Amino acid sequence: MVESGPPSAQGRMPMAGFLSGLSGKLLLLTVAFSMIAEVLIFVPSVANMRLMWLRDRLNTAAAASVVIEGLPDRELPRLVQDDTLMATGTKAIVLRRADASRMVAAVDMPPRVDGQYDIADVSIPAAIYDAFGTLLFGGDRVIRVYGPVGDSDTTIELLLDESALRKAMLTYARNVFVLSIAIALITAGLIFFAINRMFIRPIRQMTVSVRAFAADPSNPARVLVPSDGKDELAVAGRHLSEMQQALQRTLKEQKNLADLGLAVSKINHDMRNILASAQLMSDRLADVDDPVVKRFAPKLLRSIDRAVSYTNDVLSYGRMHEPEPRRRFIPLRPLVLEVREMLALDARADIEFSLEIEPGLEVDADGEQLFRVVHNLCRNAAEALSQPVEVGSRRILVSAIRTGGVVTIAIEDNGPGMPEKARENLFSAFRGSVRAGGTGLGLAIARELVLAHGGTIALVEKSAPGTLFRIELPDRPLPLDAFRHRA
To answer: Which of 390, 407, 387 is nearest to 399 (CA)?
Structure first.
């Protein structure tokens, strides 16, 4: 009987918490990937924001310069220059043409320039590098920025205090960061709830079912109730439910088999005593001077000897082990005739038992084990013929032929045939029974004994009604000395 184990063993594998489980990991990964995507978007966007801010300053200064340029070619009053610089947020404005340059406005003491940037010729990597340079190291620098005025050949140059630019970039970065967090959380939440409902919840249900089933596999209530969906998880759930039901049936059968072995072991001792007494009485019958008794006494003795041997070996099947066959060359025809006598088919005129076996045909096998195999198959055939059949006569045919080192034995009847359910579980104990109330042990034992001889046993399809089993038994490799002795 299979036990589920102590509760402490089950307690060593607790269910994962929210953050350590698939749900929490999925949520954290979704947020992390969303933030990574936002960062990848933020890097070029902040560089573009910086260029746009500088272009706005150039355009504002250019608009003011166009007005001032229409004035007489002389230096502007200090008050006008200061107003112009304050309106444009610059420290100096210079207009350059191919033939001349003009200082539109400038502070009294122009500061030292810490960097210069050409807005008209800037690559994306350079723009990103300059943007992060301003964010990380800017604020107290003065930069020179220049670029064309519209489509003309005039170039405008500005001296700017970078603190205003850095302040605007920090505000932009803060707004983008807050927006990114909001987008990441909303996206992660939507993805989480969708995936959690479609994937994580069914997986958790299957996990809980597996844990509960492992704790008490014999309880039908612990079997998973699968969903009716058509996706992969629904199909997996249905397969898991079928597997759990099959395992419950197997455990029940194993328990029945164990109980059967225990019951057999309890009666085995008493049965051997009874058979021993019967054997003693049979020995005395052999001394009775009666032709009928002398005729049947040896057969009775052999039957009791087999019964005693069976009681000694009956626990072998419960131990899933049959004794190794004691093989030797034995004539097959007398063995099959003895099977017919054991089945008492001669007394049943409605069943014909036919043999197509040459008298000299020998098979390399354990006589007792081969007798059990042939007896099981012939008994099944006789039981099948006890049911109504389509043909008039009921017949069991046992034939054999030697082909090289292999003997093929065929056992055929013209009964109703093997039911489909028995075919599906052929040679399986407790499943392959043909008749109601049977155990199916006969075919299971026959297969085990044939395999122990290195042979095969199979159900052969036939066009006529009935059942046909074919057994193939190979000879053992013959040592050279044994061959010379037989020769």
So the answer is: 407
**Helical segments of 70-161, H only:** 78-88, 124-137
Query: What's the whole-number mean pLDDT along residues 135-159?
Result: 82
pLDDT digits (tens, 9 = 90+) for 348-384: 557 888 999 999 999 999 999 999 899 989 988 888 8
Report the CATH fold assignment for 323-486: Heat Shock Protein 90 (3.30.565)
Take residue 71 and report the two structure tokens written for it: 């004035």
- Portions of the chain given CATH number 3.30.565.10: 323-486
Q: Residue 12 pLDDT > 50, yes or no?
A: no
Measured between alpha carbons, how far is 339 from 356 in angstroms, rounded to an integer?
15
Q: Quick check: 403 and 473 in contact, CB under 8 A?
A: no
Q: What 8-state DSSP symbol labels residue 139?
A: S
Reported as a single tens digit per residue, the pLDDT across 74-91 is 566 777 677 777 777 778
In sequence order, the β-bridge partners of residue 95 are: 102, 156
Measured from the Cβ of residue 374, the count of other Cβ atoms closer than 10 Å reads: 23
Where residue 247 falls (left for φ over 0; alpha for ψ -120 to 50; beta otherwise) is alpha
